[in-house]
């Protein structure tokens, strides 16, 4: 009888582990397919797959987190004139992120980082009328993330992108953004990429922006020329 109980317990444990592995593998495969393409058609298709994964493993926080990430990223790629569609998909992203928080039972540094990116995306829809509200939310969430884990590279990556796209006349530009991307780079290099419950997104984009900043910094400045 004892042997039977042990066999049942072992089988149950193996089943649970297999389910977790299946979710992790499915999530990682789809996330990487989403995150490594700039083709809007492919990105949308992979984003839809992430949404299906979130439905299949509805009781796990990570699929909802990546679904929120994907929807936020897609909003950045939509045409500027499609403001209603951008707002609609960001509403969906917010719902997914809130679900992830509920299932996780707390707000971690990664949650605050994604909240900051979501605020950045909201601001990108109509910056003229929303920069004060969402700019503050962006900064506040990054600060909360930093208080929990100052070694999270996505904090500095996002701050760098914010400065990169801010006009030089308002204190932004490539030169001032570069130190943030450089700070993030070695932090990205130490991250593991096997466990989807430990987010690792941003490394490739950080490298891209860092090179953009360095290339612009190396170009000789021409008097009276505005490179923005």
The averaged pLDDT comes out at 89
Q: State the low-pLDDT regions, or none.
A: 3-20, 220-228
Strand content: under 5%
Q: What's the story with the biggest beta sheet? A: none
In terms of structural class, how would the helical and strand content be classed?
mainly alpha
Question: Helical element count?
Answer: 9
Total count of strands: 0
Portion of residues within helices: over 70%
- The sequence of SSEs as H and E is HHHHHHHHH
Radius of gyration: 20 Å
Apparent shape: globular
Task: Note the gap between the termini.
Answer: 76 Å
Write structural notes for this entry:
- It is a single chain.
- By secondary structure, the chain is mainly α.
- It has a domain at 26-118.
- The chain contains 9 helices and no strands.
- The protein has helices spanning 2-35, 40-56, 61-77, 83-104, 109-125, 127-148, 153-164, 174-189, 203-218.
- Helix 2 runs antiparallel to helix 3, helix 3 runs antiparallel to helix 4 (83-104) and helix 4 (83-104) runs antiparallel to helix 5.
- The longest helix has 34 residues, at 2-35.
- The chain starts with a helix and ends in a 10-residue tail after the last helix.
Task: Explain briefly what this protein structure is.
76% of the residues lie in helices and 0% in strands. The chain has 228 residues and is mainly alpha-helical. It has a domain of 93 residues.
Keywords:
0% strand, 228 residues, mainly alpha, disordered C terminus
How would the blueprint of this fold be written?
Blueprint lengths: L1 H34 L4 H17 L4 H17 L5 H22 L4 H17 L1 H22 L4 H12 L9 H16 L13 H16 L10
Helix pairs in contact: 1-2, 2-3, 3-4, 3-5, 4-5, 5-6, 5-7, 7-8, 7-9, 8-9
């Amino acid at each position: 009888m004892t042997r039977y109980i042990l066999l049942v317990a072992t089988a149950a444990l193996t089943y649970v582990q297999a389910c977790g592995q299946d979710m992790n593998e499915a999530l990682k495969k789809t996330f990487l397919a989403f995150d490594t393409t700039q083709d809007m058609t492919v990105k949308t298709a992979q984003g839809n797959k992430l949404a299906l994964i979130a439905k299949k493993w509805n009781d796990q926080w990570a699929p909802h987190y990546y679904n929120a990430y994907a929807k936020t990223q897609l909003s950045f790629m939509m045409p500027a004139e499609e403001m209603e569609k951008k707002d609609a998909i960001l509403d969906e992203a917010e719902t997914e992120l809130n679900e992830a928080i509920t299932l996780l039972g707390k707000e971690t540094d990664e949650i605050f980082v994604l909240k900051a990116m979501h605020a950045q995306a909201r601001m990108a829809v109509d910056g003229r009328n929303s920069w004060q509200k969402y700019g503050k939310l962006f900064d506040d969430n990054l600060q909360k993330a930093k208080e929990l884990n100052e070694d999270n590279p996505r904090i500095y990556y996002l701050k760098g992108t914010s400065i990169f796209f801010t006009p030089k006349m308002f204190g932004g530009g490539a030169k001032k953004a570069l130190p943030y991307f450089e700070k993030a780079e070695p932090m990205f290099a130490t991250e593991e990429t096997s466990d989807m419950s430990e987010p690792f997104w941003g490394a490739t984009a950080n490298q891209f922006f860092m090179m953009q900043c360095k290339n612009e910094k190396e170009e000789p400045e021409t008097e009276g020329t505005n490179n923005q």
